[in-house]
């Protein structure tokens, strides 16, 4: 397969030292104490990056497994679960809840804005009988960011556990699991962490553990059951064979982040994202998000006479470059520029913006100036 | 982590060209048609190796996910399922059946012998009202091989679908899915295929698909739901982000197998396995299996005054080499020598046998001759 | 060391499959017949790319070793050698000639133009008593290209052997060793071949071999003595340990070239080079070369109030990108944009031109338009 | 090419982290200050491993280039040079001396013993008018070790510069350049350092530099001229393009050595070598060396009715493993077992000895016991 650079909001570029770590020979992973200790250390390093001393687990699967595992492990038949919805993934949680016998209560908001904290508070005053609540940190299809630092503590005030999907948020945006009192925080390796696909991440608070331990019914899954990891260190064995190469690669990616410094990584994302948003607007296009744009991805509205899908196809065919549109109702409306993790660097964003500029011109759009140059100019103004 | 060669029955050594394939940059995997086409081609190549034109899926997870997905996708509440049991994994299927609401009927046999086909026939004459049956091709903890070519057709005679766990069998032993009429055949990448851990393999027959399509209740899982892949080519999207590196590495591993020739690979396994079994016995130790030994792994009984666990520890500490014991009741009784896939080569087996010989001597066992040399002599006799 | 993309005229980017070939385990290289056969095959593949069935040798060293080896092996004390000079490397040959006891006669021409074939013809009519003549295919410091197809046959008419330095020419520009009757053609792996540094390349005609065999004095060097390779296949041994990894990597790079097709590679270089030259001029800068610009590198005159060195430094510090200036008297005058081998791709050239544009603006230069966009526009016009 | 493990005395196995370093993208090497600084640091690290603060240079070539460069740079026409000869490489120095116009005086000794220091002293008392002397640390074709700690200081007493070929010695045996007052110490990357082939190593004392600076005639070579590196840091440029990948790989190999600890590395070589020598003799074969065996390689006399070449061939064909015989008059007499650098590990030596044992048996030799086991037993006795 010919390599085609991708500027989708994940999977992101994987840095050379991370890719080369994948090529190393690996030790037996099933019963070898050294590996089990190593796995534990990488989990803790992951926790450090997430801002938590809670137990962190790496599941052998894609990020969505983390979401299912959280719901599978917490939900018992009949449990009421509050699903906060201002985006496609946000709403999607209701399916996992239902699948495991829970009763989702979906609270929906404007998809072009962050979840309004005050409206949630008003709702909770009237009804707060929920075992747990779910929401998404960054809902990628629309590039919206929700305010974890307010939502999660608010829910905890009412004794409601929180499950947060930060797959496309963590590392690009602060998540601070402990400070924000997130009970189960879900992540994936292939977004802003810029490690290979293949590990789903969950952190589990003591409250969440207590809730699982107090279940009256067994968890109706093995692969999505977080309790199969219980006591793995003492037992000296993991519940299944771990992808050791991916664990080693993840560690290198985490070291890259820690070596750069998490503050520096957040700043890099913020600078790039602001310049992208400014340049796109200076150029004459509109953003989908009205308030609360994520620094990991930007959703740009493509005029209907051009169409996001047509632009995407044209760019693939003419410039051998992959850009994502959105999902569902937004598929032909929104073009998404991913700028998270290893993709949040000036040269890469310059490349993709130059291509988008040329692609749009090819299809008849008249931008105001050169999009790449507008981006560089916007970056320069920030300093 | 210091590298420690492992002769467990998986994960096996991954050949250099497969490991280096992991280090390549990968394309976007979510919506890119080229990748989806590529994924499909690797699935078909996997099918070729398994001897089937059935649909083959690669799930982003460890081999056990294949087993769970088969049971999750087939089982509806109340379904009767026949669980053929002559080993630890064989018996374990009952848990998956129960988890998804089925009623497992466990038919147990001597753990030191292959499943006796005639006894199964006798049983079926009396009771054959089962939606599907499960059994294991090679049950690794005890190194037993079951005769797929007889069991699966027999069950099909009675209209019973078959789910076969060939995780530790396929590639090392013929599986011939189509010839043997296996409805769902499960595999993993890290055993005799000698690709990295991280993909679970299932082939799905038309009968199995029909059965899933005729369900009256939804499948109670997303990650273990085989139907989420339905129509992925037409839709132009996979249900979640695939570990593209692992898919590429798997393809290289499959090419290695096809280039060597499947017949040659089976012969290599058979020769090595026979020489291992002969040399171990000539040396003065006994095999666990009385009839039906698998060519992928050998289970050796370690005298109780030495103990398999003590020998394993001694060898790890003194010779920096990992050998597996067994599980559960056999943990301290059986030492397992894995000789599957990339580990089924003379030099590697010679290494591990020489170390086992020295390890046993260190602990006071008096073998008859030099175990490594006995192995080489046995190999020579075979030719 | 932090990675810094380089757009110097070599070493060029090395494609991923070539770099990964370097990571493979290698066989013993000294006496192993399989390796010696392999080395020979790679030499022949190199010859295919150079358009010759002459013997080709890969010497374990940098490209300059090829030049020295040619002169060391041909020159005997007192030999008259014609040195055609229209560039820094062209003139430099006189030092090698002198070092090995020869008497160089330097014929110098305008450095901004290709060597004028008619003037050489006029000179030869009067004086053609030379053992051999030297000239450079592409003299990188000034980006000038000489017409091998005329010069070499002309010299052969007079019975003069030709030594051609095509280190920075071959693969990017046709060299056609046999058609052009080049006696010793010199190359390096790290230019348009885009393999790792570490092998010097020479092809040796029968006439050149005869000349070496007829020497009256021994060659005054071992490492630069081409005769130490005589009969290496029959002897079953090479004169010293070859860098096996680099030989394997070179083979992959040659396969990349042959798979793309040599004609397609030349066209790619031509298209990119023309667009670079046009866009630089449209932007308001001048080229150094008046006639005979090479398609592998472009020499741009930087206004003295800015200075090539200052621009180079500014770009390194501000944009983390390496661009070469020139050598000697041109060091602060010429900026060189390398676009050979793996660097001759639109996206890479777009990157470097965009950075140069911004760098020049930062230092007060007012370009006419956006240099990157001018390049894309020029490319588009070509089609 | 099929991979064939080699137990020749170099090139040795290259550890995985060193090989993977080769696969990294590299920076421009010619004029980039960061690379030049990096090159300098790796040279210094190389010096640390050699026990010297003298300038160390890495030349882009095979080890033999170091020897030629030392002689080319020191020798002026008519210079008398003392060549100490107790092995094939030892004697070979005379050719380099002559090639550059010097007058070699060859002092030859028994090839089965270390150079007798007292005899050298006696000779020097009578004749010590030499510009420099040459000798070999470990002469690999016969596996002999010379006592650098005595020879070099003795020569310096008489004001004679010393050129020591430690290509096959350093890292496996202490070289201590400064303590032993070696003026030019020569090495290669592919022996006990276990880095890839491709860099020749020289350390140059101030006395040697003075001698070069005081030359009356120019050095008759470019590639073998050590003075072309003069002032490379100040100039900000190296004399030719360095193989950056190999420099990076060398650094990783040096880090491996320093991390293990040089004392530990010497001990590892000593233990392995002693056990090899003991086991070979216990088995019933004789060593070539009577006194002064090197710990990096062992020369075993193969009975003439078998023949070293026949044994070598048989082992290659039957066991796919490469073992070296010797050179010249010893080619069919001596089998050499390399156990230096990454090859000086128990499992690897066990492998090769087991194969040699079986190979000898196949050809009719009756060894006393199992050679691999004798080696393990000998190792055990050492502790």
UniProtKB/TrEMBL annotation, chains A, B, C, D:
Swiss-Prot/TrEMBL keywords: Aminotransferase, Pyridoxal phosphate, Transferase
Modified residues (N6-(pyridoxal phosphate)lysine): 191
Keyword Protein biosynthesis in record: no
Domain Aminotransferase class V, chain residue ranges per copy: 28-290
Cofactor(s) named in the record: pyridoxal 5'-phosphate
Position of the signal peptide: none
SUPFAM superfamilies: PLP-dependent transferases
Coiled coil: none
InterPro entries: Aminotrans_V_dom (IPR000192), PyrdxlP-dep_Trfase (IPR015424), PyrdxlP-dep_Trfase_major (IPR015421), PyrdxlP-dep_Trfase_small (IPR015422), SP_NH2Trfase/AEP_transaminase (IPR024169)
Molecular functions per Gene Ontology: alanine-glyoxylate transaminase activity; L-serine-pyruvate transaminase activity
GO term, biological process aspect, one: glycine biosynthetic process, by transamination of glyoxylate
Pfam family, one: Aminotran_5
Chain sites annotated for binding substrate: 336
Record-stated family: Belongs to the class-V pyridoxal-phosphate-dependent aminotransferase family.
Protein name as it appears in the record: Aspartate aminotransferase-like enzyme
Organism: Ureibacillus acetophenoni
